[in-house]
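Hi V.,

You were right to ask for the full record rather than a summary. Here it is.
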Amino acid sequence: MVQDAVREVLEAIYEQDFLGCSYGFRPGRSAHDAVRTLEQMVHQGEVRWIFEADIVSFFDSLDRTELKKMLEVRVADGSLLRLIGKCLHVGVLDGEAVLEPELGTVQGSVLSPLLGNVYLHYVLDRWFETEVKPRLRGKATLIRYCDDFIIGFEREDDAGRVRAVLEKRLGRFGLTLHPDKTRLLPFWRPSTTQQSGQGPASFDFLGLTFSWRRTRTGHWRMGCKTRRASLRRAKQAIYDWCRRHRHQPVKAQHAALGRRLRGHFNYFGVNGNFPSLLRLVEATKRAWYKWLCRRSQRKRLTWERFTDLLRQMPLPRPRITVRIWGV
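Predicted structure:
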């Protein structure tokens, strides 16, 4: 409750300062808004290169001393600053042991996402907008969702220079780019004469994989699908749930699986991503059938009886809930 009250106070202060490139954990903004901005800049031809970045253990590496200096710029109340300091130093319960790390913020805390936004506002957002962009020869756009961000560039030479200085900039504040997950890749619109079904490269952002696709009319547009790792985790989570709860009443299982699928559709139900949603529904049917069969060693549920069960209690159908691209 205390941290939530502090969050409300800080949110009222910093919402006036946060830049438009920041979308994570802000009122009235969502990951889908970040994707819409990405689609707009790609559609307008402002992007030919994508810099995909990943910060190693951001919330565990955040420098508390630097964060306090940043907070002092806008927060003059010493009592509030001391209270924030106490929130930063609360322990983390790991089994029976209480850990008190010297770096970072407590993950899972309601205050941590806002403090992370404040930190990257000064480390990345303002620096990029005021110091980096004026020195570039072409256009560039930063899109950040908490610690997950990409930068779209018009020119490759601009992208290379920014990558070099970005690593030094983050290093000054105790942050490190993941060497294997940080990359610069080409992402220009393929020519109309190209016959293959995909463009030059693809990249991951916010649980989705983006690539160029050829439409039915023969034109190229950017499309997306559920990231392979995200889809695999969703399937595994449903499989594990079916295994753990296989002895619950069938109606209760059906209701719980429906909630899980609808929650998945609410985020990943982006137009163009229907095949990935369908694969998850089919995987859910197989997992549910398998663990219903193992409820008893005396009776075995046949696929025909399971099909009849699905007619009586159908699982939610894949549904597009968010439209990013016009169709």
